[in-house]
Write a structure and sequence with these properties.
By secondary structure, this protein is mainly alpha-helical. Helix content is 77%, strand content 0%. Helix 1 runs antiparallel to helix 5. It is elongated, with a radius of gyration of 19 Å.
């Protein structure tokens, strides 16, 4: 039986590493194996920003990958947490006998906690990623405009 609360917390805390995909679909989950790639690219962008400063063009391209992956996994946690028990059990516990009456798909306070924290941190990270990437893009465009005018 796949528990909705566990899946929501795994999507929120370990989502960038694909833990929720492995929990729900097993080790054959393609998305679970692909999620660490943008996470690693974003972490590499942060390391480049620490080494070369924020004016490094590659770092400001790579850093939003981490932010968008984190916010996407937070959205996944919200979707899992708000899914109705009937829909959850039909989708993830369909092969188990008496899955319709199962408690694995029920919402409790730990599920609501995962949804609230995912909403808080996911929206914050998304807005910060958008602000950072757009600010760096427009600063780069202004700098290019100055170079052209000289």
């Amino acid at each position: 039986m796949k528990n909705k609360t566990v899946a929501a917390w795994l999507a929120f805390l370990g989502g960038p590493f694909g833990l929720h995909c492995f929990y729900l679909r097993g080790l054959s989950s393609t998305l679970g194996w692909l999620l660490p790639i943008p996470t690693a690219l974003g972490l590499y962008g942060i390391e480049r920003a620490r080494m070369y400063g924020l004016d490094d063009g590659l770092s400001w391209v790579l850093i939003p990958f981490l932010g968008f992956t984190l916010s996407g996994c937070a959205l996944t946690a919200i979707v899992y947490g708000l899914m109705t028990p009937e829909k959850w059990n039909a989708r993830y516990n369909a092969d188990v006998a008496s899955a319709a009456e199962s408690t694995a798909g029920r919402t409790n306070w730990f599920t609501i906690g995962a949804v609230v924290l995912a909403l808080l941190f996911g929206s914050t990270v998304l807005m910060a990623s958008l602000a950072f990437s757009l600010q760096r893009y427009f600063e780069h465009e202004v700098e290019e405009g100055r170079r052209i005018s000289q």
